[in-house]
Amino acid sequence: AFYMCDKVTTIELPQSVMRLGEWSFAYSNELVNITFSDAIEEIPACCFRCLILNSLNFPKSLKIIRSGNSFCCEGAHVILPEGTEIVESDAFEGCTIKSIYVPSSVYYMSKDWYYEYPCYEEGELEQPRIKLSPDNPYFRLENGKLVHNYVPNEKAQKEYSKKVLEYIDSKSLQEYLMKKDLLFTPQEMIV
Description:
Layout: E1 10-12, E2 33-35, E3 42-43, E4 51-52, E5 64-65, E6 71-72, E7 77-79, E8 86-87, E9 92-93, E10 99-102, E11 108-109, E12 114-115, E13 129-132, E14 139-142, E15 145-148, H1 154-167, H2 171-179
Parallel strand pairs: 1-2, 3-5, 4-6, 5-8, 7-10, 8-11, 9-12, 10-13
Antiparallel strand pairs: 14-15
């Protein structure tokens, strides 16, 4: 709809908008302000690729941020709303955000959620500071990095495995992610 649109600077999505398409706003170089509809639950792959926004306020209804988005907000402090469950790889590709808040509801966050563009010198961009909800049972912070918690009992482990497996549909994708060490799930949790 607005792919490579260079005439729009502000978009306010009406409450009737419930879904966005992949690449919808990608490469819209003049777009700096977006107001999301509260009905949006998923930000699809590459929907907001290569944008430099003034600020970033996700809808409270958000559940999933797919890969390949580049929410660049110079020096922003990003807050994922409670209810967000999944953050895929490169969801914040090449961004210059200062920090990100991870709520208790996030159970899958790719190790590669943040990625520096190759055009930057290694270490030129400061890795965003992660603020983790103390109520998040799935992760803990170690040396500023997210580390997956081992799920302590069999019932909780089965519930977690079911959530992850519902998210990852195919066995081949599970195996690929495990080989690439992109899935924060211990091998024995994959059924």
